[in-house]
């Protein structure tokens, strides 16, 4: 099937469309329903009647945007009317929810009169926290937005105007930087004089482009003062009329630094590109076909052509989704009365700055695993980059507060943590650990230091203040890779091949001499195997923690730390723990990586160590020893092990958290079963530490929960070691390394 057929099938599959309403409060009992509706709902109604701002506290208004259109200028389709525009407006709602967790009602108005549209939206003001105007043709869209900004007290944003302006503005900031050109001196030519072109030209002025350096062309050619005096252009185009001879787009582009295309495809030739100034900047944003093709523009010249389009299949896509969800997120969260120029500039500057930073692995994978690095082919962030939320929304909120548009003040550091939580419980939990790590950073040795991911992780770890990373490996190679990646930092490197590490070899020989390791073999291991080097480094207190395993099988990566660092004094066995996060629940699963067939003593040790780990995430542990039996319902050797382990822990004075077992998995996690059928259990709430009876079941269990249960997994985290050591999974991403570095630092702080 082709794209059109796939899209039709996508939209008509039951349930039809792309959005639905879901409840956010319990509705399971008669009391729940009496609170949600009559008679309980009267209480918040009366509170709001006394103070209308209480609507933000008692209703969804503060997270609800109205996407309003009359379908008169649907991108690529034109005036198709209100009803036919509904799939587009639903799609806009999907993007709001997906990228910024904002709920949307799409509102399609069968009306062409701007005055009547304004009145309709004014009547809906009590419903929404903000209004996104969409696909309304010019010049009516200007009138509608201007009047609504004056007449209603919630933010209004016409994305077709300002979205393109802001995102292309961010791209322009970086393109000018890469080209080594001053914004104030840029000569800018626009092809197109509709809503988005006029809004972009206005916005570029806010960024520093001089108005007298902007030349705008419509279908009749350059907008000149002579045409304006003759009444040939409307009042909005007239703002950009210049005292120039009449001419066409080709005349305007001659000698220009920047071309901004918001018109129709295929109207720019290679000769026109060749006529521009050195290292030209070309934003050909007509959709679906740009004013000039990407390769065509690049091939027109020998110097650097910085090219952007509106298409996702080429670098530098000017995509409005980089703006509107996050602009509204910040505006809603400070209860802004408007989205003003200061907020728009803050968005563009935040996006431009983000593009200059290292790109997460998940983003690189989403775009075919090709390297993504700041330069001519990467001047704006990718839409799927989760960091956009954390950079843009706080910038919008801050600009709103500073400019007087905000009704409420917020703490920006706390706000970033709230935004993390919107993207999932795992990010919220990791923020707890990373904040602890930042309070007292420790040195973390990174084995396999020549690995590009390790180098990028070291940069982020240092940049965020999580730890003081030491990369183990060839110093020249590490520094060369860092430079090639454009990472602006001086990595600390421990190079076994050039440093004087004889004492490390002596120590390794001392520890392993009776295990068959000669002194010369120990020297070779220290020089050639960064796992052994890092293990001795931590054992000798030259580093506080070690991360390893990125390119090794887990058992082979674990072996050197176990041989050198060993387990804690009062612990005989290490264990691998995963933290699984669901929407409203966090569960620790052990053991998933180390002990194949543990006895009751090992199970007890693993439980104790996992409970300690949970507390590092500010989670009070409640542990369940799992089996296929409930409290003796089956009695055999297998069920006795977790039962005995639970009894040992209950008798252990050092265990200060509830433990019980053996029990089935659903008994452990379902409150009704635990309290109803097994009210005698020592657990008064569902367990959050699940200890599996063997490695096989633990590994299967966590992977099923992750893949089918929709859980996010963090780990494996190694517990029970004498010094903080964590073994990565092969293929882990940079963010996984950074997260485990945070865990390792908190481990070291406990030491």
In the sheet with the most strands, the strands line up as 7-6-5-8-9-10
Number of strands: 21
What is the SS-derived class? alpha/beta
Number of helices: 32
Distance between the termini: 60 Å
Pick out its properties:
Rossmann fold, globular, 751 residues, 6-stranded mixed β-sheet, alpha/beta
Structural notes for this entry:
Its EC number is 1.1.1.40. Its cofactor is Mn(2+); Mg(2+). It comes from Natrinema versiforme JCM 10478. Residues 161-401 form the Malic enzyme NAD-binding domain. 45% of the residues lie in helices and 12% in strands. It is of the alpha/beta class and 751 residues long. The chain folds into five domains: 3-24 and 60-154, Rossmann fold (3-Layer(aba) Sandwich); 162-312, Rossmann fold; 321-422, Rossmann fold (3-Layer(aba) Sandwich), CATH 3.40.50; 433-565, Rossmann fold, CATH 3.40.50; 575-720, Rossmann fold. It has a six-stranded mixed β-sheet. Strands 18-17-19-16-15-20 form a six-stranded mixed β-sheet, with helices on both faces. The chain is globular. The two termini are 60 Å apart.
Chart the SSEs and their pairings:
Elements: H1 3-12, H2 30-36, H3 42-50, H4 55-58, E1 64-69, H5 86-100, E2 103-108, H6 114-123, E3 130-133, H7 140-151, E4 156-158, H8 159-179, E5 188-191, H9 195-207, E6 214-218, E7 221-222, H10 225-229, H11 235-238, H12 249-253, E8 258-261, H13 270-274, E9 281-284, H14 294-299, E10 306-309, H15 324-333, H16 341-355, H17 361-366, H18 387-403, H19 412-422, H20 425-439, E11 443-446, H21 452-463, E12 468-472, H22 475-484, E13 492-494, H23 502-512, H24 519-528, H25 530-539, E14 545-548, H26 554-564, E15 575-581, E16 586-590, H27 600-616, E17 623-626, H28 637-651, E18 659-663, H29 665-669, H30 671-677, E19 689-691, H31 695-707, E20 712-719, E21 725-727, H32 734-750
Helix pairs in contact: 5-15, 6-7, 8-9, 8-16, 15-18, 16-18, 18-19, 19-20, 20-32, 21-32, 23-24, 24-25, 25-26, 27-28
């Amino acid at each position: 099937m082709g794209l059109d057929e796939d899209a039709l099938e996508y939209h008509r599959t039951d349930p039809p469309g792309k959005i639905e309403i879901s409840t956010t409060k319990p509705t399971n009992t008669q009391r729940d329903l009496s609170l949600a509706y009559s008679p309980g709902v009267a209480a918040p109604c009366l509170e709001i009647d006394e103070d209308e701002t209480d609507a933000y506290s008692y209703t969804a208004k503060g997270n609800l945007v109205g996407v309003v259109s009359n379908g008169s200028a649907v991108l690529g389709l034109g005036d198709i009317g209100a009803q036919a525009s509904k799939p587009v407006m639903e799609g806009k709602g999907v993007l709001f929810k997906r990228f910024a967790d904002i709920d949307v009602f799409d509102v399609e108005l069968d009306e062409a009169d701007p005055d009547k549209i304004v009145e309709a939206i004014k009547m809906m003001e009590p419903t929404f926290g903000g209004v996104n105007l969409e696909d309304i043709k010019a010049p009516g869209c200007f009138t509608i937005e201007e009047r609504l900004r004056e007449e209603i007290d919630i933010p209004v944003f016409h994305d077709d105007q300002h979205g393109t302006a802001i995102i292309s503005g961010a791209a322009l900031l970086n393109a000018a930087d890469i080209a080594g050109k001053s914004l104030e001196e840029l000569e800018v030519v626009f092809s197109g004089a509709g809503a988005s072109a006029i809004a972009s030209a206005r916005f570029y002025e806010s960024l520093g482009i001089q108005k007298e350096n902007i030349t705008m062309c419509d279908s009749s050619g350059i907008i000149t003062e002579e045409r304006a005096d003759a009444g040939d252009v409307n009042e909005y185009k007239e703002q950009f009329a210049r005292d120039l001879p009449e001419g066409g787009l080709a005349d305007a582009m001659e000698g220009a630094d920047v071309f901004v295309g918001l018109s129709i495809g295929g109207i720019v030739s290679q000769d026109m590109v060749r006529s521009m100034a050195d290292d030209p900047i070309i934003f050909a944003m007509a959709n679906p076909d740009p004013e000039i093709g990407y390769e065509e523009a690049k091939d027109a010249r020998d110097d650097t052509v910085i090219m952007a389009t509106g298409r996702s299949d080429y670098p530098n896509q000017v995509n409005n989704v980089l703006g509107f969800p996050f602009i509204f997120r910040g505006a809603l969260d400070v209860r802004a009365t408007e989205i003003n120029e200061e907020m728009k500039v803050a968005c563009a500057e935040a996006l431009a700055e983000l593009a200059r930073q290292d790109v997460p692995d998940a983003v690189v994978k989403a775009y075919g695993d090709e390297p993504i690095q700041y330069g001519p082919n990467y001047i704006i962030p990718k839409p799927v980059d989760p960091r956009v939320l954390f950079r843009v929304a706080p910038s919008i909120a801050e600009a709103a507060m500073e400019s007087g548009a905000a009704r409420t003040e917020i703490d920006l550091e706390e706000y970033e943590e709230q935004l993390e939580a919107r993207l999932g419980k795992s990010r919220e939990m990791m923020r707890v650990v990373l904040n602890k790590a930042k309070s007292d950073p420790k040195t973390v040795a990174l084995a396999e230091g020549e690995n590009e991911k390790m180098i990028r992780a070291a940069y982020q770890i240092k940049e965020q203040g999580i730890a003081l990373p030491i990369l183990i490996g060839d110093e020249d190679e590490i520094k060369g890779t860092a430079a090639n990646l454009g990472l602006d930092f001086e990595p600390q490197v421990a190079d076994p091949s050039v440093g004087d590490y004889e004492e490390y070899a002596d120590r390794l020989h001392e520890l392993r001499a009776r295990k068959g390791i000669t002194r010369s073999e120990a020297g070779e291991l220290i020089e050639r195997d960064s796992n052994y080097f890092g293990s001795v480094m931590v054992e000798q207190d030259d580093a506080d923690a070690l991360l390893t395993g990125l390119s090794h099988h887990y058992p082979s990566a674990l072996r050197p730390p176990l041989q050198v660092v060993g387990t804690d004094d009062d612990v005989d066995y290490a264990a691998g723990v995963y933290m699984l996060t669901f929407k409203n629940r966090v569960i620790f699963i052990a053991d998933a990586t180390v002990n194949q067939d543990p006895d009751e003593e090992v199970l007890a040790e693993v439980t104790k160590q996992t409970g300690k780990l949970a507390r590092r995430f500010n989670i009070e542990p409640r542990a369940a020893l799992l089996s296929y039996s409930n409290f003796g319902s089956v009695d055999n050797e297998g069920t006795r092990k977790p039962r005995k382990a639970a009894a040992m822990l209950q008798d252990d004075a050092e265990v200060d958290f509830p433990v019980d077992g053996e029990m089935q998995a659903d008994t452990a996690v379902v409150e009704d079963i635990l309290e109803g059928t097994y009210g005698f259990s020592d657990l008064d709430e569902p367990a959050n530490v699940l200890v599996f009876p063997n490695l096989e079941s633990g590994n299967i269990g966590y992977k099923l929960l992750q893949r089918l249960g929709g859980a996010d997994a963090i780990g494996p985290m190694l517990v029970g070691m004498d010094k903080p050591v964590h073994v990565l999974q092969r293929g882990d991403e940079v963010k996984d390394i950074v997260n485990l570095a945070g865990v390792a630092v908190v481990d070291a702080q406990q030491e």
